[in-house]
Amino acid sequence: MCGISGILSLVGQKIDRKDIIKLNNKIEHRGPDAEGNFVEGNIALAHRRLSILDPKNIISNQPFFYSNRYVLVFNGEIYNYIEIRKQLKELGYLFDTNSDTEVLLKAYLEWGEECLNIFNGMWAFAIWDRIDKTLFCSRDRFGIKPLYWVKK
After folding, report:
1. Residue 147 belongs to a domain
2. pLDDT the model gives residue 35
3. Domain membership flag for residue 144
């Protein structure tokens, strides 16, 4: 099942780690097997993991980091990730995992928002760019995986 949570201050207020931990604990029922969080300045992202497919693979734990620039929290499954991975490999991308998580992030790096047109599956995710200070969030077309946000 898994679950993600996040806090972004639009006025630049620093996020306290205990706030994202408290928020993430509210969805413990969605993922009691592992948890992780990322806090940096005015953003915090967190993940709860239910280990079904790879219960011993800690590489799948999140947040998922790439190139010390991108931070991803992801809930769901990209059904066609093997085909997308093959396409990305042909474009020169290398992979450290066999997960759809890494494929999702690298598809975003290659195609930007257009990656959503390629994905077949159910998802909710957030990608934070630590250099550009941008947040990209998406949920699947039918809203199978929840993604709620509030502007304060």
Report:
1. no
2. 78
3. no
Specify whether 2 is catalytic.
Answer: yes
Q: Is residue 150 part of a domain?
A: no
Asked if 49 and 82 count as a contact pair (C-beta separation under 8 A), the reply is no
Look at residue 71 and tell me if it is in a domain. Answer: yes
Q: Which domain holds residue 60?
A: 3-139
Residue 125 binned pLDDT confidence (cut-offs 50, 70, 90): very high
HSE (CB half, 13 Å, CA atoms) of 8?
15
- The model's pLDDT over 29-40, given as tens digits with 9 standing for 90+, comes to 666 666 789 999
The gap from C-alpha 109 to its chain's centroid, in whole angstroms, comes to 13
Locate all alpha helices (DSSP H) within the chain, ordered by sequence.
17-25, 81-90, 100-111
**Which residue of the set 2, 71, 84, 107 is catalytic?**
2
pTM of the model: 0.89
* Nearest alpha-carbon partner for 54 in 85, 97, 104: 97
- Name the least confident of 59-73, 95-109, 126-140: 59-73
